[in-house]
Write a structure and sequence with these properties.
Oligomer: heterodimer
CATH architecture of the largest domain in chain B: 3-Layer(aba) Sandwich
CATH class of the largest domain in chain B: Alpha Beta
CATH topology of the largest domain in chain B: D-Maltodextrin-Binding Protein, domain 2
CATH class of chain A: Mainly Alpha
Low-confidence stretches of chain B: 1-35
Structural class of chain A: mainly alpha
Shape of chain B: globular
Strand content of chain B: 15-25%
Mean pLDDT of chain A: 89
Mean pLDDT of chain B: 88
Helix content of chain B: 40-55%
Distance between the termini of chain A: 26 Å
CATH superfamily of the largest domain in chain B: Periplasmic binding protein-like II
Number of domains of chain B: 2
Low-confidence stretches of chain A: none
Number of domains of chain A: 1
CATH superfamily of chain A: MetI-like
């Protein structure tokens, strides 16, 4: 079945398959595959015990905990509040809507160092916001989470927005007429449709946060075992010309990020199929 | 309405043509200057940007007078080790001007770009200027900080850039450590002092200037450790709410320079590159350096600018640590003494 469909592809009404696929593979090779393969190759210059040492020292493990934990928390918060922002932008008309819509993209465009410095200044003990807070944000793991939340926001909003725009109001009206409460309408009608896009937005924000360096480095305080992110430890290794050690940590990051993203994709496929059935 | 639209299209076109013309002129100009004389690339550390902006034109004038040749100088600045890695990875630097000898050593040992005894090719360990690591405190010195030991007192907070990634931080570490040895103490005592100081660090910034911001602008810490050469700049930027404390003894930070043999031989720029570095020892360049608060080697100039450079007992990295390469390995590499100290502080 699959095979015959593959054969039929050759006579597809859409021309240019070979060319397009060839270009895609070449492009991906140069931009993604070869650089990543080089990272993996570099780690092969290490012996297994050296590799294990580099990636499992207590300090590095503490940094994984922070990087993955803060990234996950940031993506989660973005999923919730990104949905709210998106809802407001799609469903209501108000003065300044376009402006807010444009603001959402700002974290994409802003150099991350600028974002990091601005957040640090605002949330430090004598900053405009920080001085009113009873707890410290800048130079703590909370600051790391804050910076990662900032850079992740547009991913959720921009993936949800088109889906929400396409959701006809009539569906909700029908639900209301059939006696559903507002909460039921949201939970059983709207959320299932949004779920796959929400997951995509979540995983994009999460993946982006894992690799973030520029903004976090200013706000983290970089205290060993407390607020050191994994990318900083990679830089630290490079600083001592330990290229292999640096790539070893990078490989661990890459592999775990890949596995996590794959799992999220699986989850997404599952929700989609469930939705198809229901 | 319609009229304006046409006009804007026309003006846009004009702008397009103009920018194309400008680009062409630029290309011409750079081609012309390329033909006129050799170009030197000076790969340097971050905070030397202001210094070389003044030194380069002075050299170009002097060299033109001496040889009649126009030399173009391009600058590249960044974190010292980051710059060294760029040169290792193929950035074609004719000369490197760093703030730590190990960043040039690595070009010799790993890259074989210049001989290992490069430091002997020019006077003063190939370092035309020096600075010292000092302690900056808040006005009036409310915590009574006078020496390294005061930074280790419980309840004191001191901002030091991350020694794992900054030369500035490493210099602070070896300054405190060496001060104990200089006073006749043991390595165990030195370690204890350094442990106490680093347990008091609330933020490890990724660069010297970032640490300055944390201390001066965010109001974090009772003290900041940095180079003497940064102090004027800090006061110019953040006002005079600070005081400089010279500890009893401190590290002499040498800013070494070297010609990259492999590059100049390939490009045929050896003559100019060597003249450029030699110029750094001339009175003119030494005076520019002194104005940038870098201690000149020339005794006469040091005397003339003595007000900015108080006498202080110093030691070099070679004296107590056997050079930067060894210090890096023993103290700062993964699992080294610095890591052990931090891990112990954590427990």
């Amino acid at each position: 079945m699959v095979l015959s469909r593959a054969l039929h592809k050759r006579y597809s009404v859409l021309p240019g398959f070979d060319l397009a696929l060839g270009f895609t593979l070449l492009y991906l090779s140069f931009i993604v595959l070869i650089p990543l393969a080089a990272a993996f190759l570099k780690t092969f210059t290490m012996s297994w015990p050296a590799f294990w040492d580099a990636v499992s020292s207590p300090r590095v493990v503490a940094s994984y905990r922070l990087t993955f934990g803060a990234s996950f928390a940031a993506a989660l918060v973005n999923a919730v509040f990104g949905l709210v922002v998106c809802w407001v932008l799609v469903r209501y008309e108000f003065v300044g809507k376009r402006l807010i819509d444009a603001l959402v993209d700002l974290p994409f465009a802003l150099p991350t160092a600028v974002a990091g410095i601005a957040l640090t200044a605002l949330y430090s003990g004598n900053g405009w916001i920080g001085r009113w807070l009873p707890f410290k944000v800048s130079f703590t793991p909370l600051g790391v989470w804050l910076a990662l939340t900032f850079i992740g926001l547009p991913f959720v909003v921009r993936t949800l927005q088109p889906v929400l725009e396409d959701l006809p109001k009539e569906v909700e009206e029908a639900a209301a007429i059939l006696g559903a409460t507002r909460l039921q309408t949201f939970r059983r009608v709207i959320l299932p449709v949004l779920a796959p896009a929400l997951l995509t937005g979540f995983s994009l924000a999460f993946a982006r946060a894992l690799g973030e360096y520029g903004s976090v480095i200013f706000i983290a305080g970089n205290l060993p075992f407390v607020s050191e992110i994994t990318p900083l430890l990679i830089i630290t290794k490079l600083e001592q010309y330990d290229y292999a050690g640096a790539t070893a940590i990078a490989v661990v990051m890459l592999t775990s990020a890949f596995v996590l993203l794959l799992a999220i994709n699986g989850l997404q496929a599952w929700t989609r199929s469930r939705q198809g059935r229901g | 309405m319609r009229f304006t639209r046409t006009r804007s299209v026309v003006s846009r076109r004009v702008a397009l043509v103009r920018s194309a013309a400008a680009a062409a002129t630029l290309a011409f100009a750079s081609a012309a200057s390329f033909a006129a004389g050799p170009t030197l690339l000076n790969v340097s550390y971050d905070v030397a940007r202001e210094l070389y902006k003044d030194i380069n034109p002075a050299f170009q004038r002097a060299y033109k007078q001496q040889s009649g040749e126009d030399v173009k100088i391009e600058q590249s600045h960044g974190g010292s080790s980051k710059q060294a890695r760029a040169v290792l990875d193929g950035l074609e630097a004719d000369v490197v001007t760093m703030n730590q000898a190990s960043d040039i050593d690595v070009l010799a040992t790993r890259g074989k770009l210049l001989p290992a005894d490069w430091a002997k090719r020019l006077p003063n360990n190939s370092a035309p200027t020096t600075s010292v690591t000092v302690i900056l405190v808040r006005k009036g010195n409310p915590k009574g900080i006078h020496d390294w030991a005061d930074l280790a007192r419980p309840g004191t907070s001191v901002v030091i850039p991350n020694p794992k990634v900054t030369g500035n931080g490493r210099y602070t570490y070896v300054a405190a450590w060496g001060s104990v040895l200089k006073a006749g103490g043991t390595p165990a005592q030195a370690r204890e002092l350094v442990r106490g100081i680093f347990a008091n660090v609330p933020v490890f910034d990724g660069g010297g200037r970032a640490a300055t911001t944390t201390f001066a602008q965010r109001g974090i810490g009772d003290a900041l450790c940095t180079f003497e050469s940064e102090v004027n700049l800090i006061e110019a930027e953040f006002g005079d709410g600070f005081e400089v404390v010279y500890p009893k003894s401190t590290i002499l930070a040498e800013n070494p320079v070297a010609v990259i043999d492999k590059v100049v031989d390939k490009k045929g720029t050896r003559k100019e590159a060597e003249a450029y570095l030699k110029f750094l020892w001339s009175d003119e360049a030494q005076e520019i350096a002194a104005r940038h608060q870098l201690r000149p080697r020339s005794p006469a100039l040091l005397a003339r600018y003595a007000k900015g450079f108080p006498k202080v007992t110093t030691f070099t990295i070679d004296e107590f640590f056997g050079g930067w390469t060894r210090a890096q390995k023993e103290h700062f590499d993964d699992g080294g003494i610095y890591d052990q100290i931090l891990a112990a502080a954590k427990k």
